[in-house]
Specification:
This protein has 224 residues and is of the alpha/beta class. It is built from 9 helices and 7 strands, in the order ααββαβαβαβαβαβαα.
Length: 224
């Protein structure tokens, strides 16, 4: 990775940080693609420069890898539940990938870190449902994203995941060894367009992620 390429993909990161993220993401992708069928579409819609927020539905613990595959041209960080950091080695590992511990939905410390990442020109993934869906269906989006959009004025890239809930539902400690998962990237939405909505665009974002998921489900039905 050249210095100029890293400056585009993850401004302000050291060469070692950039190299480590790429190694970790590609290793995780190799494992996931070896164990399951993974389809990713719309990667050309991921902005090549500038900060942005990825907003995605949350079906399983595999979602950060799937979102990372879709946005791989850019190095993305994540807002993740603080419980995931409770086991020291694992917590340090995901922190090295850019995960930001979120204690609760209104955790202002985590919000400030996310805002700082975006102001530095980088990208983050947020799961507005506040946790993994319990039944495989998208749940109501929480408003934390709107606060970050209002503070940073960065575009939001909607993504939808389908199939990960069936592979690794919350009721299982480990994922099933077979199955298929899909990711679909939507067109970026400007912050100004979202903030012009009565609810700061949260309804629009939720509707767009639902639409993308419906497209994935229709494609899966067509495949038979």
């Amino acid at each position: 990775m050249t210095g100029g390429d890293l400056a585009r993909r993850a401004p302000g990161k050291t060469r070692m940080q950039g190299f480590w993220w790429d190694v970790a993401e590609r290793t995780a992708e190799l494992i996931v693609r070896t164990l399951w069928t993974v389809r990713v579409d719309g990667v050309h819609l991921v902005p090549r420069t500038g900060p942005f927020i990825v907003v995605s539905n949350h079906e399983s613990y595999l979602d950060p890898v799937l979102n990372g595959i879709a946005a791989r041209d850019r190095q993305v960080g994540y807002l993740a539940k603080s419980e995931l950091f409770s086991f020291g080695p694992f917590g340090r590992l995901i922190a090295s990938f850019g995960a930001i511990p979120l204690k609760e939905r209104s955790d202002m410390a985590a919000m400030r870190v996310a805002i700082a990442e975006l102001q530095a020109g980088r990208c983050i993934v947020i799961y507005p449902e506040g946790g993994r869906c319990s039944a495989g269906e998208i749940e109501t989006f929480q408003r934390g994203v709107a606060l970050i959009v209002r503070r940073t004025k960065v575009p939001v890239v909607p993504m939808a995941i389908e199939g990960a809930h069936q592979v690794w539902p919350p009721t299982r400690k480990l994922p099933k060894p077979l199955g298929g998962m899909s990711v679909l990237v939507g067109a970026p939405i400007a912050a100004e367009a979202l903030l012009a909505e009565p609810d700061d665009g949260m309804g629009r974002l939720e509707s767009e992620v639902r639409r993308l998921q419906s497209v994935l489900r229709e494609r899966e039905r067509a495949r038979g």
